[in-house]
Amino acid sequence: MADQEEKKRIKKNALGGEMTFIEHLEELRKRILITLVTVVAVFCVIFGLFDKPLVKYFKLPMQKAIAGKGAFQFTSPAEGFIFDLKLSFLAAIFAASPVIFYQLWKFIAPALYKKEKKFIFPFIFFSTLLFVGGAAFGYFVIFPFGFRYFAQFTFSDVQFNPRLSDYFSFATRVLLAFGLVFEFPLVAVFLGRIGLIGPGFFHRNRKYAVIVIFVLAAALTPGPDVISQLLLAFPLWFLYEISAILVWIFKPRDSEQEPAG
């Protein structure tokens, strides 16, 4: 009974019972400010100490694909310098991701059960692992297949000379997209805990999910390369099944009926 009362009180606070709307905005501002300061500090370290090796490895997948067919280029005086700045900032986001996820947890913590707050360290660990792991999957698996496919359209009198700015924009979208997609299991667990979905949701929608996953894989991978499509589709399918298992494991135990979903 005491636990139920505490839950009601915490949820009331989170929805604005004891905390006003302005106080919620102040809390959000505080978390965003800490995140920005952390990212900027990490950016300074990376740009000052690791800029050159970072640029080397970031360009490597494309350089291998265009070897003998072209070379990187930039067409404005400051483009190379801006490329280095943007890349260091991108790396800072990944390096500071534990702090980013910690600040996210602190912001949503008032809406959680007291017993749920003990999951803070697993949340930070797995959030960071999935985010960085998703980006690594994009870099080591998707990039080689994708860039080799694009590079095959060169001709004897045509070179493939990608601009640094264009390469950065494309690669960044892919890395961040995969990093966020790989967070799906944690998002599913959270939605399960607050009652928006239940284990049955995944069973009922599995056939639709499989169709969506393979259509998405076909859309995101270049050309009719079946192997690269499968390399993307099967990890997404695996994430879906893992999400179903985790939602069942962490479903609310004080409810006898599965939440609607």
General form: flat
Low-confidence stretches: 5-17, 255-261
**Rg, alpha carbons:** 22 Å
- State the share of residues found in helices, binned by percent: over 70%
Biggest sheet character? none
- Proportion in β-strands: under 5%
Kindly name the structural category: mainly alpha
Number of helices: 11
Number of strands: 0
Mean pLDDT: 82
Order of helices and strands: HHHHHHHHHHH
- Distance N terminus to C terminus? 27 Å
Write the layout of secondary structure elements.
Elements: H1 2-14, H2 21-49, H3 51-65, H4 79-95, H5 97-108, H6 120-151, H7 164-181, H8 184-193, H9 199-204, H10 206-220, H11 226-249
Helix pairs in contact: 2-4, 2-5, 3-4, 3-6, 4-7, 5-6, 6-7, 8-11, 10-11
Question: How would you describe this structure to a colleague?
Answer:
With 261 residues, this protein is mainly α. The chain has a domain of 176 residues. Helix content is 73%, strand content 0%. It contains eleven helices and no strands. α2 crosses α4. The radius of gyration is 22 Å and the shape is flat. The protein starts with a helix and ends in a 12-residue tail after the last helix. The C terminus is likely disordered.
